[in-house]
Every structure is written in C-alpha cells, then in structure tokens.
Amino acid sequence: MTRDQLFTTIKEKASFLCTGLDTDPQKIPHHLLREQDPVFAFNKAIIDATIDYTVAYKPNLAFYEVLGARGWESLQRTLEYIPDGIFTIADAKRGDIGNTSELYARAFFEQLNVDAVTVAPYMGSDSVRPFLTFQDKWVILLALTSNKGSADFQNLELGDGSGKLYEKVIEKTSEWAGPEQMMYVVGATRADMLKQIRQLIPDYFLLVPGVGAQGGSLEEVAMNGMNDKCGLLVNSSRGILYASSGKDFAVAAGKAARTLQEDMKKYLDLYLNSD
Amino acid sequence: MTRDQLFTTIKEKASFLCTGLDTDPQKIPHHLLREQDPVFAFNKAIIDATIDYTVAYKPNLAFYEVLGARGWESLQRTLEYIPDGIFTIADAKRGDIGNTSELYARAFFEQLNVDAVTVAPYMGSDSVRPFLTFQDKWVILLALTSNKGSADFQNLELGDGSGKLYEKVIEKTSEWAGPEQMMYVVGATRADMLKQIRQLIPDYFLLVPGVGAQGGSLEEVAMNGMNDKCGLLVNSSRGILYASSGKDFAVAAGKAARTLQEDMKKYLDLYLNSD
Fold it and tell me: Residue A192: which pLDDT band, with cuts at 50, 70 and 90?
C-alpha cells in the first residue's frame, strides 16, 4: 500500500486507529474454544466488529508463535481474512544480518503478504535494508518504545553531542528510506517527546502504541504528532480485544473501537488541514 | 542445560563448535526435494554427520519462517531429533515489551524446548527479563554483531565517557543475569575487541558467529576469548551445511565440522587450564 492510499483510507474512515491483534489464547472467551481454530474465530469476530473504525491491523507475532505451527496458520488465516485496502502490520521486531533479514522480509511480505513489518535497529543498515527492496511495502522502525526499559539504552546520551540514541536512530535510518517506505514506532507514553520527534521527521508516519491500556493520551498524541497527511497510526490492543470477556466480546470491541474513532475524527477535524 | 553440563560436553567432545542450521530451502541438494519434509531430511543428515564434533546446534528462525507453518514444523522436527545433552539455540533475535517477551520465551523454551534464545537489547530490561525466569534456560544477548551495520549504532561512543554502546549493553545487561543464564553474541570479525570484552565479562560464554564463511580467525578467537570453562561457542553455518551441494553433502559437512573440531581441540589443549 502507498502512503497516499493509506491517507485516503484515513480520510474516508475519519480514523487513524490500528487494532492490535494480540490474541492471547488464554483470554479468548470460553465459548470459542469449541471452534476448530479459536484464535482465528476470535480474530474474525474482532475484525468484523471493528473494521468500520480501523485503518490498520497489527498482529504481534509472539501471540502466534507461542502456539507453534498451528499459531502460524491462525495468523495466515487472519491476514487472508482482512480485506484489501486495510493496512496490515506484522509486529515482529525482527533484524538480522543481511541474507537472514532478506528471508524475514520474504516471510512477511511474500508468505504472509503484510504491508509492513516492525524492525529493530540494533544491527544497523544491512539488517534493515533488505526489508526496503519490496514495492509498496514498509519498514516500521523501533525508535522510542513505550516500555519502561526504553530508558536503558534508547535514552542514552551520545558522545558527539548529537542527542540521545533514539534520535540518532531516527536521524540515521531516515537516510535509508523516505516517508513512502519507512515509519517509526514512538511510544505514546512519551507524548512530550513526540513534538520534537515530529520536528526531526516531519513527513514520516509514526506508529504509536500505548494509547488506552498503557495510558497514553490520544489528545496529546494528535496535537503533537499529526502532520498534513495525518502521519499517525495509533494502536490499541487490549482495550479493544478484551473490552468484554463474555459472549458480547465482539460488540464490546466494536464499541471500544468506535469510541476511539470518534475521538480521532475530532482531532482530524481539528488538526488536519483540509484542502 | 547448566553451564557445568555444557562445559562437560565441551571437554568430552574436545570441541566448542556450534553448527548453525541455517537451512536455505533453495540450497538443499536436489535429490532431497522428493522427501516429504526436505528441510528436516537435510537437517537430519547434517546432524547425523556432525554430531560427534558439535556441542550446539543453532537454527536461525528466518530460514524456517520463510516457509510459514510448514517451516515451523520442520524446525520442531529438527529440534526433537537433536539428542539430549546437546545445547540448542533458537537464533531468533527477539525482544518486545514485557508481556510479549514472555510469550516469545514460552514459544522457544516450552513450545520448541530449546536451551537458549538470542535476544536483542534495544528495548531494555523488561524486554529481556521475561526470558530469564526459566530454569536452566539461557538468554544469548546481542552485544557486538559480525555484520558491517554493527558500526551504525553498536559502536557509537556514549556521552558519559563510559565507552561504546555495545560495552554499555554488556555492562548493564550483565547486571540482570549471571554467567549461568546469560551469554553474549560477539562477532568474530572483531577479534581485536574480544580481548577487551573478555575483560569486561570474564566468566560469561560468548557465542561467536562469523568464523568460516565470514572470515574470522579461530585462532584469534580462542586466544582472546577462552576462559577457564572454555567460555566460547564458535558457530559455523554455511561452511558446514554447503561444504558440498551434491549427494555427498552430509559426508562433506561431517568433514568440515571435524576439521573445525580438530582445530578447536588444539586450542583447548593450549589455552584451557586442565585440572
């Protein structure tokens, strides 16, 4: 999917919601466990209930790998079920030496046919570049994550006075690909840093996790992060998936997604230049 | 597996060879493609041919994920085939927020039942710690990798005069777990840095990739990296797996592994204090 196509979907749906399909087998409502593929049955119901409010779905690979080959099949079924025109993200946080990253890229872009994959920067350029050779496919690079541990290394000050490690990561990796091919993960719990990151990379999309269950403020994210093509995908996982643990889980998920979308519409109206 | 058990195996086999099962479906000898599971058939023949010279096997996940669910099954079969007493490493380079890393840990330590998993440090302590709660299971942390891109971030000088990023990573993460639970990936193409890393963490095992096809020198690695429990696992993948592309691939792989083991025996005799 191209950036313009993504932006068009965002405007049509008045939403920049990414629904995280972090489907924990232990949290699937009881009555679905009778299904042949409970994880897919759950995801299918969630997708049906949220698709009007969602521009992107983001399964995190860990939730599928914990089930082995069976989990990989559930993931594949889920991705096949998501209609064209919806942006799909494999949240895999991969990164390896060149020839190996190339295989990961083929696993995600060809085997699973997602639009984007999250990539960790630690191993440097030749670990990232193999993901950038696929037409209309995206790298979403970890810059500043929303967890406590992000302080351990991402926030370290560098010696050449060039700022913190995550700033250097953004600065350097944005030389490898433009905003048509690269996005950045920026934790919403650091909305104060969003503004400054937005100055560093005015045109890139930011994938913002941590709104909702992790307590980030959508208003702050929209105010500090939005650009003239929206430039934001804000993720919610648990807040949508587990809005109810009963038979009404899908209805509750739809409601939770709609509430977020209505908020997002407000901020799109407020901050997006309509032209 | 405990560190003592690993050391015992190293002494018994007079080897610290790790065979990397980076089985590229496109490089499997033609006659194996008739098998129901060509990847497993290849791995089985490689394991049979190399097991006398090998103390550890390290499949890289990318090579299996590129085949989807089928690849995961080949991986599972391969790991089940490796006898007890051999150290197994899932080279996965994972790392995610806490609850997600916990699922990855279960995927590797319970589902696949490997002894160790490689983990990327970028997301910090709460992305690594969930892997450290399993009895006799290991984290092998990326410190200094063997690829060119390692210069992009791992070699950056930090502002507090505490050295380079990879040194900080070693220093900080070694506070999270001792040498009974943690190892480090240290690229052999930087054998000059091995000595200094060995001073930082005298007791930890180092997993050294890049000997062989990538051109590192075993002698330098042994001289600079060995400690009184050997403290080294040196990996070779392509040099063993693809020693021949014909029907004699397994015989050739065995020979390549034996050549490395014979060299390793020499260095064990030379540098290991026998007591």
Answer: confident
Domain spans of chain A, in order of start: 3-271
Residues 6+ apart with CB under 8 A from A128: A95, A101, A119, A121, A139, A141, A173, A176, B149
Pick among 3.40.50.300, 3.20.20.70, 3.40.50.2300, 3.40.50.10490: CATH of A3-271: 3.20.20.70
CB contact under 8 A, A123 and B149: yes
Catalytic-residue membership of B93: yes
User: Where residue A214 falls among pLDDT bands split at 50, 70, 90?
Assistant: low
CA distance to partner chain A, nearest, from residue B11 (Å): 31
Residue A146's pLDDT band (cuts 50, 70, 90): confident
Burial degree of A203 (CB within 10 A; 0-12, 13-18, 19+): middle
Nearest-CB residue to A157 (from B95, B127, B158): B158
Q: Which residues of B touch A123 (CB under 8 A)?
A: 93, 120, 142, 145, 147, 149-150, 154
pTM for the predicted model, two decimal places: 0.97
pLDDT digits (tens, 9 = 90+) for A106-129: 999 999 999 999 999 999 999 999
**Closest Cα in chain B to A126:** B149
Tell me the C-alpha to C-alpha distance, in Å, between residue B33 and each of B28, B38, B255: 7, 5, 23
